[in-house]
Amino acid sequence: MSSSQDFFAAYDALLARWPTGTTEIDVPTPYGTTRVHAYGPADATPVLLLHGGGSTGAVWFANAPALGTQHRVLAVDILGDAGRSVPGGRPLRTTTDLMAWLDALLDGLAVSRTHLLGHSYGGWIALAYALHAARRVDRLVLLDPTQCFANYRLGFLLRSLPILLRPTEARARAFLDRETAGTDTDLGWKRLYALAASGFSNRKLVVGRRPDPAALSVPLLVLLAGRSGVHDAANVAVRVRKAVPDARIEILAELTHFAMPTAVPAQTNHWITDFLAGNQEK
Fold first, then answer.
1. pTM above 0.90, yes or no
2. What are the counts of helices (DSSP H) followed by strands (DSSP E) for the chain?
3. 3 state SS of 60
4. Each residue of 54-93: pLDDT tens digit?
5. Residue 92 and residue 121: Cα distance in Å, rounded?
6. By the 8 A CB rule, do 15 and 61 touch?
7. Distance between CA 49 and CA 36 in Å, rounded?
8. Integer Cα distance of 6 and 16 in angstroms
9. 191 CB contacts (<8 Å, ≥6 apart)?
């Protein structure tokens, strides 16, 4: 099989682990068609999930069952990244474009307000969107978010460089093995991530400046990976507390950045569902 065929085989294998009743929705936007994996009661409060770079919306298979008991889970394949979303129409180039794309996506899903959850790069998009359209966001959950409260560690950037410059499946897998060592990160997802690096090497993720979280007006939960190679979790926690004093912050000591969200999902799901269902305090 070609690398593209391998990728979609791994993608479909991960999607097959979603709970029975999951449906696939293709939503047209001015920037192209966006694939959304939907699960849970159609009339429940939605929670929109934004994955980390190269992870695809299929990565949330271990979170969907818990989240879908009380919410309508809407897991997106971010446009421009690996997955089944198809760019077309206007080019997606800037943070402003990303925000307009999400506006159009929510409109296309007939969602006026939603909880928003993002991991890594998806966390950066989620925070930016909560600042852009607070009226549409009920609660915000960030899993080890990047470029939200702190910069990348230099060592992490140096380790990432070979994949960015000359991506191959073997290089991506070696990088991921190092970054998830000592965790029970899902093997099927690791294969998908490595194939995304080699099969979608021309993907162009929109990157922009760090948002100003101090302007956030919606309740915030930040789950940090205690062993993250991307940044220092304790330092990020201090910065979160300074920017958003009433944020809820939890450090999952045994996790690494890329172990989220597939490792110890019961623990992660507990914090998320408790926060989404929780009291009215921010």
1. yes
2. 9, 9
3. helix
4. 999 999 999 999 999 999 999 999 999 999 999 999 999 9
5. 16
6. yes
7. 9
8. 15
9. 10, 173
